[in-house]
Structure formats: C-alpha cells, structure tokens
Amino acid sequence: MSANAAPISLNRFAEAIAELPVGNLHAKAAELRNSIAHLVSSNDQLQQYAVDGDQDCADAIRENNEVVERMQSRISLLRNEVEGRGLPWNHQQTSTMNGNLEDQVANSRGEMAEENSASPEANPSSSQPRANDGGSLGDEELARRLGERLNENLQDENDGIHI
C-alpha cells in the first residue's frame, strides 16, 4: 500500500460486499486469511531483530498487527454478510498449515491466545464438506486433494501437469 493511500473503511467495505455472490465472499475471506498468514510469518521473522533493538522492525511488526486487525474485521463482515443471507459460513477453520491463525497472530504480538476447544469454529470436527456447505471444501481438505492430484500427475513424467 502506498504511503498516501488509506485503507477502505469498514462501512464502505460492507457496502461493497453487499451485492457480491457468496462464492466471491468466501474467496475474499480466503484471500484475507492468506494475507494474514503472510503478515504473521513476516512478524515472526522480524521479531528477533525487534527484540535486539531494531526500531524499524518493531515499527513494521506494529503496522502489520494493525493490518491484521483490519483484515480480521473484514473477515467478520464477510461472515456476517453470508449468514445475513441465511447461508452457512463454511470457512470455519481459521487455521493454517502451521496451526491456529488466531494463536499465531496473538503470539506475534507477544500475547497468549486463549484456548477455546468448545468452539466449533476453532476446532471443526471434519475438513470434509457438509451437506449444507454447497459442496465447498475446507482449506485442509482442498490442500489434501490438490496434493493427491499433483502426486498422481508427477508419477507420469511424460504426461506433465495439465491445467
């Protein structure tokens, strides 16, 4: 983002997503979760230098955390929009390959996230799609299936990967 550009306000974001198809809302949520994961990873890498007194790294971590908070607010708005249409929110998992995203964000701030094992959102019972999910796959299930397909394609080197 440019130094002069301000992020879109939450109200304008809510207005902008009101007319989007549900698939686009889920795609935007996935994009935001991916961006959050990258910012958290960046903070993890910067943390060592910030602890050693590098003010630029400390400032970058602070700015990244502000961006993460805005992105999490947008994910909440996306969820509210989907549920407001009477549809299920099928992106329950907020985890990445390295663990719970909320815990990673909290740890990047130097805080401890509270464990909430009773929440179905924090611990989905299955990465398999449910009947009312409209056939959408969870992040883990999608990654597993893509991995299987890539492995199948790599076994036949003469064929290559077909997209």
Question: Key terms for this structure?
Answer:
163 residues, mainly alpha, two-stranded antiparallel sheet, 57% helix
Description of the molecule:
With 163 residues, the protein is mainly α. Helix content is 57%, strand content 2%. The chain contains five helices and two strands. The chain has helices at 10-17, 22-51, 55-84, 101-108, 139-155, and strands at residues 95-96, 99-100. Strands 1-2 form a two-stranded antiparallel ribbon. A hairpin with a 2-residue loop joins strand 1 (95-96) and strand 2 (99-100). Helix 1 (10-17) runs parallel beside helix 3 (55-84), helix 2 runs antiparallel to helix 3 and helix 2 runs parallel beside helix 4 (101-108). It is flat and about 50 Å long. Residues 92-101 and 108-133 have low confidence and may be disordered.
